[in-house]
C-alpha cells in the first residue's frame, strides 16, 4: 500500500514484463492525446546542476551532487549499513514539482519517501514506496510546491547503503527571490579569567551581560574559553557563572588553553560542554542557519589528517550560499602572537570552497582584515578575517601591523555582533559600555 500527501502519483518502473511493455508502445499515441499526459510531456527538468546535500557519503567520490550532474555514469552513495539516509536538492526560491525520476544503482531502497519542503525543515510527502525493487522509479502526476526536494530512504534493499545514479526533478520554478533570512550572532574568544563579578576589574561578567543584551540567535566562541588550564572546576567556578548563562545556545571551539588541563587535554572542556562542543563526536563540527553554513574547527589539531578530510567532505556537501569558519589560531594577526602558519592549509581549503568569513581568537585584541587569499594577497574573492579575542582575558598590545589589516583595537573589552542575511554580512565590535567601537563593511557572499 502506498500513502500520498497529495493526489496519488503514478509510478512506472523499467522492470516491466515484455508483454506489458509492448502494449504500452501500441497505446503510446493514444496516451499522448490525454490532457494529463500532455502536461507531463511538457515538464521541464529543474534539478540538474542544483546544489545538493545528503545525510552521508560513502566517500568523497560519491557526493550528492553526482546524482544531479546529468552524467549517468556518476552516482551518490551513502554510508553502508545505516538507516535512514537521505539526499536532497535545492531547486531555488520556489518550485512546483510534477514528476520525480530515480535511477537506482545496485544499492537501492526497499522503502522510501519523496518529500518537498519550503525551508528544509518541515517536509510534505509527495509519494511513498514500500516495496521497491531498484532500477528506475518514475513518479508522475505529483503536486507539490517548495524549495527543497528530498528522497528519504527508510529501509535498504541490500546490506549496503543507498545509491542513486540520477535524481531528476521536473516541474516549474518561480522567479520570486528567497526570504532575506536575517539573523544575529554574538562571537568572542579568550573569555573567562579566574575572577568573578566581585572584582571590578573582572571583564567576562561584563562581556557576558553585553552578549545577553544583544540577544542573538546563538553565540559562538573562538577558543580559550576558560583560563588558565581550563580545568572542569574552573569552568564551573568562572565561565559557568557568566557565559554559562546561555551555554545551551553556545557553539564553542577549543583554544590552546583547553589543552593544558592536568586531567588530560580538553578533559575539562569536554566534560563541561559535552555534546554542545562535540555534536558530531569530535571537537570539530558544522551546522546551518538560514543560508549560512558554519564550520567550527579545532586549530590545535590542524595536523590531524582525519579533521582535514572531514573538512573537505563537509564542504563538498555544503549547499548554502554563504560560508563561515571559526577556530582559535589566526593565520594573520597584528598582535603579540602574530601570524600562525598552522592555519594556512585550512585557509587554502576554505578559500577553494569560496569561504566568506573566518573568525579567530588567540591574540587578545580586535582586528579586521580586507578580503585576502591564503598568501595574504588582497583580492575581492578573498576571505574576510576577524580577530575577536577580547572576551575577558588580559589585553595584548598591537605589535606588527599586517598587510590588509583595516582596523585594530586593544584594551577595550567587547564582543562581535554579526548581522547576516541570505546574501550579505556585516558586523560591529561593541564594547562593554554598549558603544560601537567599529563597524565592518557590508559584504556580499561569494
TrEMBL record:
Instruction: Please report the name of this protein according to its UniProt entry.
Output: Alkaline phosphatase
Q: Which organism is it from?
A: Streptomyces vietnamensis
Q: Which InterPro entries match?
A: Calcineurin-like_PHP (IPR004843), FA58C (IPR000421), Galactose-bd-like_sf (IPR008979), Metallo-depent_PP-like (IPR029052), PAPs-like (IPR039331)
Keyword entries, A-Z: Signal
All copies of the F5/8 type C domain together span: 33-172
Has keyword Ion transport? Answer: no
Q: Name one GO molecular function term.
A: acid phosphatase activity
Taxonomically, the superkingdom here is: Bacteria
Write out the ranges of the annotated region (Disordered). Answer: 49-71
